[in-house]
TrEMBL record:
Domain of life, per lineage: Bacteria
Membrane topology: Multi-pass membrane protein
Record-given protein name: Amino acid permease
InterPro entries, sorted: AA/rel_permease1, Amino_acid_permease_CS
Predominant localisation class: membrane
Taxonomic lineage from the root: Bacteria, Bacillati, Actinomycetota, Actinomycetes, Kitasatosporales
Cited Pfam families: AA_permease_2
Species assigned in the record: Streptomyces abyssalis
UniProtKB keywords: Membrane, Transmembrane, Transmembrane helix, Transport
Length: 483
């Protein structure tokens, strides 16, 4: 791919799958957004939205996997955009990289924020006098980001070990939660309950309220580009990276549907639980009792922490690669690698700091979580769409060992179409009436990044940034390898 090797190639096929599976993280995604879905569409959208969006995400993953097989680098999306563009390679690569960056930061921030919310819910269950506040949520999120950054500063083997543990934590945890929700409650909702619709968003349009509920599934299925970003640290990356993407999405779709159905059928008092500060926690309490709910919350919080750790790892590799091509302020800092751990330590701390900045509005905003989620979903999926769109325009695309054959174009068209439709939706208001505390600031956060990227592009970057840098011929680059 034209780069001297700095990162250690020690991720096996399972490790590559594990990072995307951990970032998707069905327990974290479903529990953190279940309450939003209860009020934006209810069981009808939670269940059937999950099924339909999962299929559409598989289309996106397949198209991304085909590109990952052709361009297995840490630069992933922005690198492939620069290679696939016919003209203006630098501009396509530049904007894809910045969208990917803000989406990755949004994912790390949202997962940490969700974990902080559930930690406070658990504390409040244990000590009823504890008051849950936005201030405390932000401070706990900062502590979580600090711990995850420390973990990411050590060797890639440590991150790989955490990711392996996280896969089993997720699978065993899901079995425990689902079994408890099916066996322990005295009664469940009737089979027809999955058709129940609810719109408590404040908007009069039931269609709009229900469409907002698709955010639950879309938020869960983000970050599978992690397998792509870890390509330079994965053995046989041309095959194992795309397989990691597809397996992570497929297994998450099936296991997530089982978990979603278990939560939906365990609902008892819909109005009370939907209005609770943490609706899925209230569902667990009402269905299983306080003691069991506390134990299951430990599983949920652990899953969220693993998810955030993997998010930050992927975020860091994107920063490292983007800086390697001189596309970020202070690039020479962010693409440096620790000689002891062989990890981009400075990029880790930049990822943590940017995530914290995105969380700060939670100090006063009631819709901070959905806004951060929107930044995550919109930034990442637009970054996913660009190389897929460019691949559709390229008649002489040279696929890698893993490819879609004649199905590549139709699958890619569906993928891009869904990304455009969903991203427009997630930039719109999520609650009514629209006030300072309910305003969806995702368009502002995304707009600020794009304005900065555009100003910088026309000021200086377009003269020096021409897309991914080539350091020489394969033989010359091999001689530069630092490992």
């Amino acid at each position: 791919m034209g780069y001297p090797r700095k990162l250690t190639r020690r991720f096996r096929a399972f490790d590559n799958f594990a990072i995307s599976f951990t970032i998707i993280n069905i327990i974290s995604g479903i529990f953190s957004s279940f309450g939003f879905g209860m009020n934006a569409g209810g069981p009808l959208v939670l269940v059937f939205g999950w099924i339909s969006v999962s299929v559409l995400v598989l289309f996106i993953g397949a198209s991304m996997g085909e590109i990952a097989s052709a361009y297995p680098t840490s630069g992933a999306l922005y690198f492939s955009a620069g290679k696939l563009a016919k003209h203006n390679k630098g501009a396509w690569s530049w904007y894809t990289g910045w969208l990917n960056f803000v989406g990755q930061v949004g994912g790390t921030a949202a997962t940490g924020y969700a974990a902080a919310t559930f930690i406070q819910a658990l504390v409040a269950m244990q000590w009823p006098g504890y008051e849950v506040t936005g201030h405390r949520t932000v401070l706990i999120t900062a502590a979580i980001l600090l711990l995850q950054a420390l973990a990411n500063t050590y060797t890639v083997q440590l991150v790989a070990v955490f990711n392996r543990i996280s896969v089993w934590w997720l699978l065993i945890g899901m079995v425990v939660i689902v079994t408890a929700l099916w066996v322990m409650p005295e009664h469940h909702q009737s089979a027809s309950f999955v058709t129940h619709f609810a719109n408590n968003t404040g908007f009069t349009s039931a269609l709009y309220g229900g469409m907002l509920g698709l955010l639950v599934t879309s938020w869960t299925f983000t970050g599978f580009d992690g397998s792509f970003h870890m390509s330079e640290e994965t053995v046989r990356a041309t095959v194992n990276a795309p397989r990691g993407i597809m397996r992570a999405i497929g297994y998450s779709a099936i296991t997530g549907l089982i978990l979603m159905l278990a939560l939906v059928y365990a609902i008892r008092d819909y109005g009370k639980e939907a209005a609770a500060d943490a609706p899925p926690v209230q569902v667990l309490i009402d269905a299983l009792g306080m003691g069991t709910a506390k134990l299951l919350l430990l599983i949920v919080i652990g899953a969220m922490l693993f998810c955030g750790l993997a998010n930050m790892t992927s975020n860091t590799r994107q920063i490292f690669a983007f800086s390697r091509d001189g596309a970020m302020p202070g690039s020479r800092w962010w693409h440096s690698v620790s000689p002891r751990t062989r990890t981009p330590v400075k990029a880790v701390w930049l990822a943590a700091a940017c995530s914290l900045i995105l969380v700060i509005p939670g100090w006063w905003s009631k819709t901070a979580f959905t806004a951060i989620v929107s930044v995550n979903v919109v930034g990442l999926f637009l970054a996913y769409a660009v190389p897929i769109y460019l691949r559709l325009r390229l008649s002489d695309f040279q696929p890698g060992p893993w490819h879609l054959g004649r199905w590549g174009r139709p699958i890619g068209i569906v993928a891009v179409a869904w990304i455009l439709v969903s991203n427009v939706l997630f930039m719109l208001p999520h609650a009514s009436p629209i006030t300072v505390t309910t305003f969806n600031y995702a368009p502002i956060a995304l707009g600020v990044v794009l304005i900065i990227a555009t100003a910088w592009w026309f000021a200086t970057a377009r003269q020096r940034f021409q897309g991914p840098v080539s350091y020489g011929s394969p033989d010359e680059v091999a001689a530069m390898d630092l490992i």
